[in-house]
Structures are given as C-alpha cells and as structure tokens.
C-alpha cells in the first residue's frame, strides 16, 4: 500500500485517487485496522492499454444537445483562445444527465486554476465528459475529454500550482494533480470535508452553490477505478474516449454542457 503522500507521475496525464488502509484523514488521528479503506490522496496511474481503434457506434441518447460544441474544434493548449485571464468571479452552469448544478468561481482563491477552468469551459471542453470516478462520501472526478485525439493534445498541458488558500470541504472543486505543477484538465468535487488534501497541494478555485444534491446523486455504483476496483481504467479512457465508457460503463452520468452564465 502506498502512503497518502505518495504520488506517481507518468507520461499519460490521467489522474487517480489512491486508497490506504488504516490512515486517518486528519493528521495525528488514530485509526484502527478494521476501519474500511478510505481514498485519501491523488496520483496518476500508468496507462494499462495500448491505443485501440475508437468505437464508431453512436449512442443517440448520448449525443450532444443542440448548441453543443463541435468536439473537433477544441483548440490546442497553446492557442490564445484558451489562455485568457478569467473574470474575478464567474459562474458555470453544468447541465448533466442527472440534472443541473452551478459552480461559482472566485479567481483570487487559485488564479491559475480559475483561468484554466474558465478557458476549458469557454471552448466546450467538458461537454459530454463522463463523471468516471465517483466515490461515495469522498468525491466525484471528471475531466478526460471524450475524444481521444483531444485528450492526446491536452494531457500534457500542465499549469503551475496555486497556493492553497481555501479548504477542500464539501462542495469545493479543485484540479486533480500528480504532484507539483502537474494540473491539466481533470477536476474533482468534494462530497465531504476532505481538508487532508489541502496539505497535498490541491487548491480549490470554486464551489457548488446550486444543485449540490445533483452532484450527490451522480452514479457511484462502479466505485474505485481499475486496477484497484471495477470502475473505468483511466488509460483506456485516454486511449478510447467515450466509446469505451458508453460500451462498458453505460450507467455513468455525464455532462451535457458546461457554460459560463455570469
């Protein structure tokens, strides 16, 4: 078992939360060995599969709604269109397969993270993205693009860290990371007080201010991701995109659109 402070970085920039037996969420708090495993840290998992041909089958019920972005038009990470400074505060409405929720962003909390989030939302990056790792009483993780070609262009688009100014309490959203200065596109929303993550550098930049009950209701039946659990393998998500998730994990909830609303 790895300790909660261990991170592993690979050439594939997907992110994974790790599980550790008998480790307390609060530093110094004792915990007996019969306590169930709890996910308490984030790391990147080495890709398990070689690139495979993308499944060409189209699931009509999962198609982007009218007005959705053309996925082939997502800019490259160095494009000026996705490197703008975000407003000092703004709101993003997520329309999902489970319902709607709103994230309110305060740029001063984590400026680099807020800028990256703002630009990704503005170009439609999160449209059709799956909540591929939802752990009850911990967090909901998303942010791997559904098109493998887009993922390939963005998975090494790292940004520098922000100092942690706010805590990873319930409803707060942060970028996942593989260690110092490795944030790319993946995010997680905290279901509960996960303040132990603060010490590991996860800097919240916004909070769910409407519809947290929708986030709570996201499908969590697959549990931990492969290889530790029966959930999706992040290497395969990167390589095969939504075709893999639609085929093998069709109960996952997903984002229809994410739009800046004010």
How would you characterize the overall build of this protein?
- The longest helix has 12 residues, at 111-122.
- The chain has a domain at 79-260: Cyclophilin-like (Cyclophilin, Beta Barrel).
- It has helices at 111-122, 148-154, 212-216, 234-240, 242-248; strands at residues 16-20, 38-43, 89-96, 100-106, 133-135, 139-142, 172-175, 187-190, 206-210, 255-260.
- It starts with 15 loop residues before the first strand and ends with a strand.
- The chain is α+β, with helices and mostly antiparallel strands.
- The model is unreliable at 1-69 (pLDDT under 50).
- α2 crosses α4 (234-240).
List the helices and strands and how they pair.
Layout (H helix, E strand, L loop, with lengths): L15 E5 L17 E6 L45 E8 L3 E7 L4 H12 L10 E3 L3 E4 L5 H7 L17 E4 L11 E4 L15 E5 L1 H5 L17 H7 L1 H7 L6 E6 L2
Antiparallel strand pairs: 1-2, 3-4, 3-10, 4-9, 5-6, 6-8, 7-8, 7-9
Helix pairs in contact: 2-4
TL;DR?
This protein has a domain of 182 residues: Cyclophilin-like (Cyclophilin, Beta Barrel), CATH 2.40.100.10.
Task: Write down the CATH topology of the domain at 79-260.
Answer: Cyclophilin
Give the helix proportion (percent range).
Answer: 10-25%
Number of helices: 5
How far from one another are the termini? 45 Å
CATH class of the domain at 79-260: Mainly Beta
Low-confidence runs = 1-69
What would CATH call the homologous superfamily of the domain at 79-260?
A: Cyclophilin-like
Shape: globular
How are the strands ordered across the major sheet?
5-6-8-7-9-4-3-10
Q: How much beta, percentage-wise?
A: 15-25%
Shape-level CATH architecture of the domain at 79-260:
Beta Barrel
Strand tally: 10
Q: For the report, how would you describe the main beta sheet?
A: 8 strands, antiparallel
Class from helix and strand fractions: alpha+beta
Radius of gyration: 17 Å
N-to-C SSE string, H for helix and E for strand: EEEEHEEHEEEHHHE
**For the residues shown, what is the average pLDDT?**
80
Give the assembly state of these chains.
Answer: single chain
